[in-house]
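INFO  loader      accepted 1 record
INFO  loader      residues=292
INFO  predictor   begin
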Amino acid sequence: SKVYAPSHHLQVYGQGLPEENLIIRLFAPDETIAKFDQITTDKDGSFNYSLLIWPKPSTNFPYGTYTVEVISTEQNGLSKKIDVKFSSTTELLDVPVERSVSTLVFAPETAAINQPIRVFVQTTSDGLLIGNEPTKLLGTTHVHLPSGISVPLSSSFKTLHQGLYYVDYTPREVGTHVFHVVAFSQGTTSHGSAATNVLSQDLGGISEQIIKLNSILDETSNELDVLKLEIEGFDNTLEKASNKIDESTGTISTSVEFISEASSQLNSLLFPIIASIGIIVALQITIIARRR
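INFO  predictor   done
INFO  writer      dumping tokens
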């Protein structure tokens, strides 16, 4: 395998049948066909073909691992593949080419039992989205249930975009569900996982109950405010009644004082009269006694 830099020639050579038609394909890191040509071998079956001059890196030709495939049209589709590396290096080196596949899994943190959820999977190689058939790419993907058993999901995936897939899953058990995604591409395996905690009730239902409880608490608070106002009014009434009682008590006290003064004046007037009457009675008794 070789590493190439921009402006280097990608030369494809080998041996086939005499004057055999060959198809040469160059696959980009995302497994799309970046270059396609058809050639004919020489009379001795050899071929040496310049497939392309590596351009400057772009979205169509990014740095990464490419695959060159030569297919025979006369030998029952016999093919040969070789990996090459496109990088920023300025030297042509013979080095092992390692293909890196990355798998990311996106699943909701919480869910409700018997309510469907959607799990997304992203597969990349050298930073590019890869894969076309999820049944092949994600063939051994499964979910671990709280009960300890595993349920395969490979046949349930749907393609959202190349390298982006999703599966709709309905949990039947309460507890932690672990989605284990296994991606296999061009001999390389990648693993990714995500966990979802399944509850016995949907968070939306809990939220509605909380909202209802808040409404009841608001009504209770309003009723308490009304009761507080009524109590404050009752306090004012009691205070007014107490003030009136105090005023009445003061009036009665004043009246008693007036009565006491009047009684004293009356006594001062009656005392001389009573004394005079006593004297008169005594004189009459004396006169009567002398007559006898």
